[in-house]
Inverse folding.
């Protein structure tokens, strides 16, 4: 007669079977309660408005409300920390941007690597940066800005709402000297730019669209491969002979590492369905966001890694630190 299984092993086996039986319906029911979407910026800004538009459309797709929670500041670290403190069950979603990767590359202390503690769901879209200058700068295109920069005795003064690498990236690609002037937020920066105390600024369209329309600032290039629908008259950097001067911000959805793949896939399917909605695409396009056609975790991660490498190369070259 064969030996009976030890009671402890038998109990473990029964518990495992019971857990499996419970897990399958739980995953199949996802989501069965509201989802929290954490945004690392204050309410009312461009990133927040994009997140809310996507959340509204995805809520309809999922049949559950997606509630936006703003956790601004700290280069995105507080927002990610909030997601990491929640269970890996798909009910706390990170609305990610490149900010935290840039902050880490510039030496911001953080107890985690964002690429290791979060898993990608999908790319929402990209916001090409627009290069604007104060009207006192005698340049209406990149060639004229390049010539002007090379004849000046002092560097062109670029504003930055925090430490960044984009100003130096412009200088590198145009072959001119620039000085990055750092501010705590866009408010004081825009005050100085509109007053002519700064020469230029590289920023997504929503932050400067009104000033461009009024003539207070001059947009001379869209730093992308294709023009922006709200300002079709502004040529791209590629069309002006600077194909490597590509600069944009990206936004996407990520989850805490360890989230069941079925939940990642469910959110990804909802995101793709939302992005296929012409009304959402129109709304995002009006705010300068080029919504992705279709997304998946692998293509999203590939774009993130490519942009991370581009930024880190500039940071190393100019020895930039926070």
């Amino acid at each position: 007669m064969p030996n009976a299984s030890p009671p402890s092993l038998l109990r473990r086996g029964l518990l495992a079977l019971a857990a499996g039986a419970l897990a399958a319906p739980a995953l199949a029911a996802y989501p069965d309660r509201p989802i929290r979407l954490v945004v690392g910026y204050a309410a009312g800004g461009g990133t927040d408005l994009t997140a809310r538009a996507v959340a509204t459309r995805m809520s309809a797709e999922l049949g559950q409300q997606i509630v936006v929670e703003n956790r601004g500041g700290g280069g995105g670290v507080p927002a990610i920390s909030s997601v990491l403190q929640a269970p890996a069950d798909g009910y706390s979603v990170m609305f990610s941007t490149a900010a935290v990767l840039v902050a880490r590359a510039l030496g911001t202390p953080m107890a985690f690597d964002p690429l290791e503690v979060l898993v990608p769901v999908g790319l929402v879209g990209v916001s090409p940066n627009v290069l604007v200058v104060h009207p006192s700068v005698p340049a209406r295109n990149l060639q004229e800005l390049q010539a002007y920069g090379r004849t000046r005795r002092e560097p062109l003064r670029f504003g930055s709402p925090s430490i960044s690498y984009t100003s130096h990236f412009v200088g590198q690609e145009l072959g001119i000297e620039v000085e990055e002037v750092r501010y705590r937020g866009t408010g004081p920066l825009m005050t100085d730019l509109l007053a002519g105390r700064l020469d230029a600024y590289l920023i997504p369209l929503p932050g400067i669209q009104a000033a461009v329309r009024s003539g207070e600032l001059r947009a001379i290039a869209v730093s992308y491969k294709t023009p922006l629908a709200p300002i079709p008259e502004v040529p791209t950097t590629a069309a002006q002979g600077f194909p490597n001067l590509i600069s944009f911000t990206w936004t996407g959805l990520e989850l805490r590492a360890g989230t069941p793949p079925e939940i990642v896939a469910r959110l990804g399917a909802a995101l793709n369905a939302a992005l296929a909605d012409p009304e959402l695409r129109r709304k995002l396009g009006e705010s300068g966001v080029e919504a992705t056609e279709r997304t998946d975790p692998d293509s999203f991660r590939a774009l993130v890694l490519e942009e991370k490498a581009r930024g880190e190369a500039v940071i190393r070259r100019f020895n930039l630190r926070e």
